[in-house]
Design goal:
The chain is of the alpha+beta class. The protein has 2 domains: about 110 residues, Roll (PH-domain like), CATH 2.30.29; about 60 residues. The protein is built from 5 helices and 7 strands; from the N terminus they run αβααβββββαβα. The strands form 2 sheets. The protein has a 4-stranded antiparallel beta sheet with strand order 1-2-3-4, sandwiched between helices. A 3-stranded antiparallel beta sheet has the order 5-6-7, covered by helices on one side. Strand 2 and strand 3 form a beta hairpin. Helix 2 packs antiparallel against helix 3. The longest helix has 29 residues.
């Protein structure tokens, strides 16, 4: 691992705190479960927006304010481009800048594209820790209760930015979960 990665996590440790594990989420463009809904929705949205812009651009311009409809559709085109393509690149970039750690006291999540955001979860007092494991032994460990009804908003507009702290898309998720359980039990 690079020195930048080590120093970034290590500078979050307090005196006498022992680092048990550190890692990053999987890199690259990845699909999530919510994409089963979001991909068809984004294609439908994008298709409608392209149709709107095409009709607005090819309509006669001799009418008063004939330039208004193409201009009105421009923000919708930008949103369509983001939800069809851009959100995958934003998610990949966010995961690339995310780091996870487990110490003998807490779980640490360091993330952020433009600003550094540190989340610290006291493992002794965390009421709920959820493990989601895939067949390839990768998965997610979530801390605390999931906010109801926010999955689409999170995955569409803020990929990897859930209000629920989690180690997302990590390798050997069961091994890390076991480390967390040992810390939790004391």
């Amino acid at each position: 691992m690079s020195d930048g990665f080590v120093s970034s996590i290590e500078r979050e440790l307090v005196r006498s705190e022992r680092l048990l594990w550190k890692g990053r989420p999987r890199g690259g463009i990845r699909l999530r479960g919510s994409d089963g809904f979001l991909i068809p929705f984004s294609l439908l949205w994008g298709g409608f927006v392209i149709f709107w812009e095409f009709m607005a651009l090819t309509s006669p311009k001799d009418q008063p304010m004939g330039w208004l409809f193409p201009l009105f559709g421009l923000p919708f085109v930008l949103v369509a481009l983001y939800i069809v393509f851009g959100r995958f690149f934003v998610d990949a970039k966010m995961r690339h800048s995310t780091e996870y750690a487990v110490t003998d006291r807490r779980a640490i999540i360091v993330s952020g594209l433009f600003t550094r955001k540190i989340r610290s979860i006291n493992l002794q007092s965390s009421p709920e820790i959820t493990l989601s494991e895939k067949a390839d032994k990768s998965g997610t460990i979530a801390f605390g209760a999931a906010p109801f009804g926010r999955w689409m908003q999170r995955d569409l507009w803020y990929p990897s930015g859930s209000s629920q702290p989690a180690f997302e898309m990590i390798e050997d998720v069961r091994g890390i979960y076991d480390i967390i359980e040992k810390v939790k039990l004391g």
